[in-house]
Amino acid sequence: MKTSGRTVGSVLLVLLALVFLSPIYLMLVNSFKDRAELYRNALALPESFSFQYYSKAAEKMGFLTAFGNSLYVTVVSVVIVVVLASMTAWMLVRTDDRLSRFLFLLFVSTMLIPFQTIMMPLMQVMDWIRTHLHLPMLNTHEGLIYMNVGFHASMAVFLFHGFIKSVPVALEEAATLDGCSKFGVFWRIVFPMLKTITITVAILDVISLWNDYLLPSLTLSDKGLRTIPLSTFYFFGEFTIQWNLAMAGLTLTIVPVVIFYLFSQKYIIKGIAAGAVK
Amino acid sequence: MSTRYRKERAWYALFTLPLLIIFTTVVIIPFLIGIGYSFVSWDGIPANPKVFVGFDNYVALFKDERFLSSAWHTIEFTVLSLLLVNVLGLVFSLLVTQKLRGSNVARTMFFMPNLIGGLILGYIWQFVFTDAFKTVGERTGLDAVFFNWLIHPQSALYATVIVFAWQMAGYTMIIYIAGLQSIPDELNEAAKVDGAGRWHRLTKIVFPLLMPSFTICLFLTLSNAFKMFDVNLSLTKGGPNNATELFAMNIYNEIFGYGHYGLGQAKAIVFFLLVAAVTLTQVIITKRREVQL
User: Fold this and answer.
1) What is the C-alpha separation between A254 and A143, in angstroms, rounded?
2) Distance separating alpha carbons of residues B283 and A273, to the nearest angstrom
3) Rg (CA), chain B
4) N or C end of chain B: which has fewer CB within 10 A?
5) Domain containing A176 — which CATH number?
6) Residue A28, domain member (yes or no)
7) Contact A232 B178 (CB under 8 A)
8) CA of B194 vs chain A CAs: smallest distance (Å)
9) pTM metric for this prediction
10) In the structure, what pLDDT confidence band is assigned to residue A240 with cuts at 50, 70 and 90?
């Protein structure tokens, strides 16, 4: 009785999860149908599987270019955030003076500022830098990366700061006595010990950067520079009603995310739980 | 001693300055000059003058009916989202921690929507709420429930809540799971021996000890719901008739749509003050209710 109750429970749980993901099912099945079939019944399985809408959607979205752009912007931004934020947080923890406490407070308090509050003046500042210092801040991937790093700095410093506080200082002191420079101490001794929190920071940032729409939409105007969310947006602007093509396009954008998720699920779930705790 | 001190300071600068420079130019300076922009009238064209208007923009925004109604929609949206996201997240977390077979698969599936960007989620659900709902309504005769949700103001707002909850529920589930796992088994066992029923154990033991998780989840849902933009843009574009235009989108439209840079920035500053006040108050209130074990 007890075991059969548990089996029923298991089945119900998985069924509930399947119902929860039913929009994904609708997206998949309709990406294979032609228009007539789709309007006959949007819920049924497709009568035949043909990938013609996928290749059409990929072409219209410039999917491969967008994928490459997203990958470049995300990876480079995350690497820079991790390197600079961990170095900064370490200095702030190990040099416990008023300046450090002030800087830490500055990072933390700005976490409350919504992006919409700074988006317009940010564009003015970047435009000023472009015209006066001749640095290509707007309409380039590098400019976008620069801004990404700025926006993700607070959270990363905050997480690294909390973690480094619990790392014993004795090892660092020993290395310093052995004549290791600060740089050497940090990269050879401290950074390897930050592995767990580095994974957390990297995962949280990858998710938010990969999916970011608003900032790239404000900075990138060339078609060839578009990231996946941008190309999806423009794709929808052009073909609102052709749902089969749209569904194929959306499926394409989700496939890389699902693959990433299945391979790093363990880290993602641990990272989210760790990142939320403080 | 002083050369050593200077050397220490040089290392300090070397380690912190790169990030500080980026952070200052991207966050601090724009935030500060943003306050300045909120006191001028300007259309965003560099050649045109920025005219100082004092508090006019702030006075104007409180008379702007579209802004006020977007404020109301945002509050409605946030309250409903807060409830739905956390009820779902909590229920999911309780279900997948029952040590049933299939728990891991279910957890994986519940969390998945969180990884898909809000923009893309909105487009998927646009199809669900329009064509798929219509088909279901026609086939089952339940057309009182299954109709095109996006053409009626109220149901379009509910639709936005559902999509947001679909995205966030898995996230809060993960945090609730971590909270549940930190509650010692002995406590539940002891209560069971004392004759406490399932519901009693849940409300008298589990929930009070879960307060830290509630604090985090409410904070995250609250600030994310308040700032929501992507789903809003792709699901309804603020329609029908601006009925689902939330704060973030109203600000975006005011600045980049109508070219009212000063007024839009004043809204953005008010928006910041609201977000800060609401989230800080919430953290203080729930922190007070946390119990120590």
Assistant:
1) 26
2) 18
3) 24
4) N
5) 1.10.3720.10
6) no
7) no
8) 22
9) 0.91
10) low
pLDDT digits (tens, 9 = 90+) for A167-176: 888 888 888 8
User: What is the share, in percent, of chain A residues with pLDDT greater than 70?
Assistant: 97
A14 part of a folded domain: no
Q: Is A27 domain-assigned?
A: no
Report ipTM for this prediction.
0.91
The partner residue sitting opposite B102, judged by closest CB among A14, A90, A257, is A14
State the pLDDT confidence band at A277, using cuts at 50, 70 and 90: low
Residues of A in contact with B110 (CB under 8 A): 17, 20
Identify the segments of chain B with pLDDT beneath 70: 1, 290-293
Would you list the domain boundaries of chain B? Answer: 61-288
Taking the Cβ of residue B120 and every Cβ of chain A, the question of whether any pair is shorter than 8 Å is answered with: yes
Assess whether pLDDT exceeds 90 at residue A69: yes
Largest CA distance in chain B: 85
Tokens of A130: 């472009």
- Portion 31-90 of A in contact with B at CB < 8 A: 38-39, 41-43, 84-85, 87-88, 90
Taking CB atoms within 8 Å and a gap of at least 24, the contacts of B125-128 are: B125/A23, B125/B159, B125/B162, B125/B163, B125/B166, B125/B235, B126/B150, B126/B234, B126/B235, B126/B236, B127/A26, B127/A27, B127/A30, B127/A42, B127/A243, B127/A246, B127/A247, B128/A23, B128/A26
Q: What is the mean pLDDT of residues A196-219?
A: 92
Task: Return all residues near B67 (Cβ < 8 A) that are at least 6 apart.
Answer: B61, B250, B254, B267
Residue A227 inside a domain? The answer is: yes
Q: What percent of chain B has pLDDT over 70?
A: 98
Q: How many domains does chain A have?
A: 1
Q: List C-alpha distances in Å: A171 to A167, A180, B161.
A: 9, 11, 51
Contact check, Cβ <8 Å, B98/A9: yes
Q: Which domain holds residue A146?
A: 52-277
Would you call the peptide bond into B240 cis, given omega within 30 degrees of 0 as the criterion?
yes
Domain B61-288 matching CATH 1.10.3720.10: the answer reads yes
